[in-house]
Write a structure and sequence with these properties.
Elements: E1 5-9, H1 20-32, E2 37-43, E3 59-62, E4 65-70, H2 78-90, H3 95-105, H4 110-118, E5 125-129, H5 134-143, E6 147-150, H6 163-167, E7 173-176, H7 179-189, E8 196-198, H8 211-218, E9 224-228, H9 237-250, E10 256-260, E11 273-277, H10 281-290, E12 294-296, H11 305-312, E13 317-320, H12 324-333, E14 336-339, H13 342-354, H14 356-373, H15 376-394
Length: 395
Amino acid sequence: MARKKIGIVVQRYGIDINGGAEYHARLIAEKMSHHCDVEVFTSTAHDYISWKHHYTNKYEIINNIPVHRFQVQKPRDPKIFGNIQNVIFNEEHTIDDELKWLEEQGPYFPDLLETLEKRENEFDYYFFFSYRYYHSYYGAKKFRDKAVLVPTAEHDPVVYLRLFKDFFNWPGAIIYNSHEEKDMIHKVSGNQEVPGDIVGIGSEIPEHFSPQSFRDKFNIREKYFIYIGRLDQNKGVPELLNFYLRLLKEENINLTLVLMGKSVIDIPEHPRIKFLGFIQDEDKFNALTGAEFLVIPSQFESLSMVTLEAWAVGKPVVANGRTEVLQGQCRRSNAGLWYTNYDEFKEVMLLLCENEQLKEIMGHNGKAFFETHYSWPVIENKYLKVLDQLEANRK
């Protein structure tokens, strides 16, 4: 049987881009290249706020994958985007207003879609990553049965916009990250008839770890728990910091909070809070394996790759229970606890500080859960089954 040819279409792409959906797309492109011919179509942007031109090469090979880049025709104008955002979320508005919001949000690069159309006969399927962007909306509308959507949808107001009700019924198939994401999209669009599966994403887990190397490199001697990701309001980091500072005032806890990632907020100076900034994957996994547990305070997640990585190395997770996806994953894995307010946060923290056996059991459960559902052979096989289902539907 001839190898299928697929196009991966995503807003940003690169080795130096570690955003959830973008990293997700790159891993899938690289893994699916073992089974299919793969090309990537993306923007020249590195910054997801302005979408300004960054990558100068319109064509390059990244880890043996051909990557085609298209310059965004108009970077985001904060004033124009802010005004239309206010209209669609706070005022009576039309579908045309929502389409205007989609365009102003960016990245707006119609040349990319024109290229997909010109080369349509070369490809069996196009995979569109992230539902909320221009390329996915108009790509699914144009290519329909040839379009596979990986929505990476979070439980935020955007998913309830009217333009997405029909949109989720257009693709030939949808690959969901979680049960909660699938249920949410079914509720807003009634798209139960669209083929698809709950797949998620794997991760590149090193074979060897050195927690001591992490401690030596960053001069950390005490016990610690860890947050890994963007440090901003949407990720719930300010609330986490407030909760932890309050807990330190109320209880004598011998535990340091280590923060890793790019920050757009002010980090308070405190001997029990250590901000390390953006770090390399080797340091990340060394840090995870040495941590007591991982904390995920975000209210908006479609899966949380770092949660899966913590479980892969046998570490429990403390999650924001107001995020249905995170709470659902903790329940299904029996590898995490969650909180919805400060009192619950305090209770969970004290429990994990005192109960080594519980941490060990949850860590063991997490590792088994990851290997059963998120190892790469499992993920790749599910993607291939979706393609087989689409082929069967064509006959």
